[in-house]
Write a structure and sequence with these properties.
four-stranded mixed sheet, 10 helices
């Protein structure tokens, strides 16, 4: 529903621009751009994410225990064995990426391997494998692409307006006042559109985290393992050196550290649900 609404939002955004600038081509451009960017990010986003996080691939001989845990969980989940990557960082964290199950990647930090007990590590890895099984990488990729499209369209609109694109309308054909009102509405719409796009992106991210928590707990049959892992990850004070706003939503918990507020306004802008809520949900599961 979120994705369908997001696609509709981009189309409406393109229509508003095409009306205000008197150019139907813009609507077609918006739709084609959304499709093109979605496919592009689908094929290449995993390589960009791994490069940005400085993750390095490992083989079974590099960490046999980690490999065995992921292999066993993959068999249980009915998934192909993903490629494993390590991030040299003291903060415990992990993420999954890749365009589909056959080309999936699971990356973990050295801090995660050092801080967590085996059952906790299994919980985290089951969570990441659930992202793969639930096709969350594809969902996330599409959402990120759509957010980028909204930003591009808004910027394009203001540039066209600045160079007189809206002044080419012939207001003598009737309804001139109504058209001016529509142009004003379009300006307001373009200002708030990037904010709305970001809110949708974050809402989708939070929903998929709850789903991956539940799926991961069902996979290990031990929700407390993941709950304990989340508490340890959240309590760690170290910043993730390679963290960025572009990749923060991929991690099992926010890689940024600071005083987390829980007001409803703050929650709207969070990429992850509050850890307390996730732990409470996991403790309430019956597997």
């Amino acid at each position: 529903m979120y994705l369908a609404g997001f696609f509709l939002f981009v189309i409406v955004l393109g229509w508003v621009m095409s009306y205000a600038l008197n150019s139907p081509v813009i609507l077609i451009f918006a739709v084609l751009l959304s499709i093109g960017m979605s496919f592009g990010s689908y094929w290449f986003s995993d390589k960009l994410v791994l490069a940005m996080s400085h993750a390095k691939p490992i083989q079974k001989s590099d960490n046999p225990e980690l490999y065995r845990i992921v292999e066993n969980l993959s068999i249980t989940a009915g998934l192909p064995m993903p490629k494993l990557y390590i991030i040299q960082d003291v903060q415990p964290n992990a993420f999954a990426t890749g365009r589909n199950a056959k080309h999936a990647v699971v990356a973990v930090t050295t801090g995660l391997l050092q801080r967590l007990e085996r059952v906790e590590l299994e919980g985290v890895l089951a969570h990441e494998l659930s992202h793969i099984g639930n096709k969350d990488m594809l969902v996330s990729t599409i959402v990120v692409a759509l957010v980028g499209i909204v930003a591009i369209l808004a910027d394009f609109f203001f540039r066209m307006a600045f160079w007189g694109g809206m002044g080419n309308r012939d207001n003598d054909r009737g309804g001139g006042q109504a058209k001016l009102i529509m142009i004003g509405v379009a300006l307001v719409f373009m200002i708030i559109a990037p904010l709305v796009a970001q809110l949708i992106k974050m809402a989708v991210s939070r929903k998929r985290e709850f789903l991956a928590d539940a799926s991961g707990a069902l996979l290990t049959r031990y929700p407390d393992g993941l709950a304990r892992a989340l508490e340890k990850i959240a309590a760690d004070p170290h910043q993730l050196r390679s963290a960025s706003d572009a990749t923060a939503h991929l991690y099992i918990a926010s890689p940024f550290r600071g005083k987390e507020k829980t007001s409803w306004i703050h929650k709207l802008f969070m990429t992850h649900p509050p850890v307390e809520e996730r732990v409470k949900a996991l403790h309430g599961m019956r597997v």
